[in-house]
Amino acid sequence: MSTQITWKHLALWALFLGGMALLPMLVGKGTLRTIIFANYLAIFAMSWDVLSGRTGYISFGHPFLIGIGAYTTAILSYRFDVPVGISIPVAVIVTMAAGTLFFLPALRIKGTYFALVTLAFMELMYQLVQVIRPDLTGGTRGISGVQTLTRGAVNGYYLSLALMGVIAISLWAMMKTRLGTALSAIGMNEEAVEGSGLNTTKLKLFAFMVGAGVAGIGGAFYVHYLGSIAPRALFDINFLFTIIVAALIGGASTIIGPMAGAFFLTFLLEYLRPFLPGAERYFIYGSIALILYMYEPKGLYEILRKARERLTGANA
Amino acid sequence: MTRILTKGLCSAAMAGLLSAGAATAEVKVGFIGSLSSDTGRSTLRGAQIAIDELNANGGVMGGQQITLIEADTGEDVTEGIKAYEYLAETAEVDFIISGSIDDVSLGWLPRMQEYQIPTLDTWTSYIGIIDMVVEDPEGMAPYFMNIASDEALATLYINFGADVLKAKMGWDSVVILAEDTAFGQAITGLVTEALAPVAGIEVKDTIIYDIGTVDFAPIFSKAQATGADFIYQVSSVNSQVISSQYVKLQVPMAMTGVNVSALGMEYWEDTGGAGGGISTLSPIPSVGFKLDPASQAFVDTYQAKYDTRPVIPHFNGFNAYHGLKQAMAAADEAGGFKDAMAWSKAMEKQDLILEMDGKMWLRYGFWGADEVEEVTQRTYPHNARFDLTSPYEDAQPSMVVIQWTEDGDVGVVYPPEYATMEFSVPSWVK
């Protein structure tokens, strides 16, 4: 473990997760359902951030990876009665293998071209699941009645919180190591990292595998929470943008940022529902996201960090 | 005296509290569907009209007023799940009426099974959902679908091919023009594997086109080159484009098929008045369908209240209107919605027969769990009652075929018992 990790950090994590664990006693089930979606979005945003926020290889195909994880476990458990204790790990492994597919273009291209190729991955998968073996995938309508791991808002909440907590702390700890520093350095100047003697290909492959693994875990548990799966729900441009916006609004290249962004966006949309039940919600959501991003491109994390600096500076 | 006064005041206060309680008691109905599509709005408005009428007549279940709470799905599967959760756990509704499309309904169905909230689907017709009722009658007990399933719709549609396209028109061969969508593939499969073989029609070719196609001239030329007797068009996206170009180019071949845009009255405006000759299957009641007095009164109210799109409620507007009233009647009988099983049993017994000229015209009822339909030889529990055999004395047919004329009228051309006009080819087709 790096010396950068202190007991103060661990105490803050414990405080955060402990506080979250008390929420079912304080808020209603409707709010818990909203937090469950926020937790899963946080997982997806964190996995995107490992892959894109750190290395600078902007992926527009992240739902491809999430979808592979979700479809693999859904098909195995629903069609072949494979226990979820087996189908979920298999789904994660398959997603990590798919992550290497994602990695191949990164060996030759970057920037806009890489983003477009990954977008093509998502579109390709959207088309394929509808026509290749619809008897397995359920075609356009997908599969309804996938086994759920929990029943009720409280149980679903604790499962999603535990999952998000473990992933967040693991990624945070990883990013505190020299490996994490190297990954962030790739995003800043890949040539410089290469010039320093590090093997950037291996580093990028590692980042892609970790990002894919987290996406696979999130996708697999997500489908077993929803109880249904459909191509339009996963291989969808809106889903992709929600993930990216959550990471960017919260603060890319951090762990807290994507989590904060996911919570902010999910709650914003759900709390607007009673007042603006229609599509107007998305206009407000888009406007707020745009203003926030224009005000502080580094996201909520940076706004909070600066606020803390001002406060501590004032105290000093 | 003081005791009497105190007792009187207490009684008055008690009575006041009770009456206040009765005044605030309400039945909460949740709407789940897209608020920005004609489909969703038809269900929403049909439900709203039913609620207005029930409230104006003193409410339901001992005078309780009904309130409607909307949850938008945006026709997005995940948003549909969130919307169902919102209705169940935040708004805590008693009953849900849905104008959701297939995959959105399939998305929130596990939540319906979990919450056991009485739910009525008015648009989705996917037979797979009825199969879920067959396989899990207890978990799916609160679910009802008051539109004939797509399987029943397709079964009767095959008869149209045999009775009209082959027998009446004498057509022996067809070329299929299908859009490149899952819907296009599904209907193409239905035509090639069922309709054409049963009717004895040869499929000369299948031409798949992109949904972004704006110039259909080369496609129509290719279709003509096959030498087929007619074109079978399958279009659910931008269907008005292929229709209007068919008319403007005066393609010298007859064209029928499935055209989703032609299901609504706005079709004529959307094609710029160039939509004549197009025919399509439609669930009931369709545009051009003769309406019984009760359904006509509903349409009149609808059009007076909402003078915007949709011009006429799609079939799901009728389904929502009648279905919501049936759901409330079932709740009255079951003592509310809380006991989902009791409500389900009461809902199964709902049977509204609407007559036209002394004859059964429309029937809003449901198939019993053990009732076997004689043509398909299967059961359809909790699905809208329909009839697949002429003269349709048990219920209305599962679908009709409608056709637009060159002067902008629309009518039913099949089955004959419900027809308002004859199936014909456009004037430029020899």
- SS content category of chain B: alpha/beta
State the strand order across the main sheet of chain B: 2-1-3-4-5
Helix content of chain A: over 70%
Question: What is the overall shape of chain B?
Answer: globular
CATH class of the largest domain in chain B: Alpha Beta
CATH class of chain A: Mainly Alpha
CATH superfamily of the largest domain in chain B: Response regulator
User: Which residues of chain A form runs of ≥5 with pLDDT under 50?
Assistant: none
Multimeric status of the protein: heterodimer
Number of strands of chain A: 2
Give the DSSP E fraction of chain B (strand runs of 2 or more residues).
15-25%
Output the structural class of chain A: mainly alpha
Radius of gyration of chain B: 24 Å
Question: How far apart lie the N and C ends of chain B?
Answer: 100 Å
Secondary-structure element string of chain B = HEHEHEHEHEHEHEHEHEHEHHHEEEE
Q: What does the largest sheet of chain B look like?
A: 5 strands, parallel
Gap between N and C termini of chain A: 32 Å
Overview of the molecule:
The complex is a heterodimer of chains A (316) and B (430). Chain A is an all-alpha fold and 316 residues long. Chain A has one domain (25-315): Orthogonal Bundle (ABC transporter involved in vitamin B12 uptake, BtuC). Chain A contains 15 helices and two strands. In chain A, strands 1-2 form a two-stranded antiparallel ribbon. By secondary structure, chain B is an alpha/beta fold. Chain B folds into two domains: 10-149 and 292-353, 3-Layer(aba) Sandwich (Rossmann fold), CATH 3.40.50; 151-286 and 399-418, Rossmann fold (3-Layer(aba) Sandwich). In chain B, the strands form four sheets. Chain B has a five-stranded parallel β-sheet with strand order 2-1-3-4-5. In chain B, helix 5 links the parallel strand 4 and strand 5 (143-145). Chain B is globular and about 65 Å long. The A-B interface holds A 28-31, 33, 37, 130-131, 139-146, 148, 151-153, 226-228, 230, 232-233, 236, 238-239, 270, 273-274, 277-279, 281-282 and B 35-36, 70-72, 74, 76-78, 81-82, 85-86, 89-90, 102-103, 106-111, 114, 126, 128-129, 132, 182-183, 185.
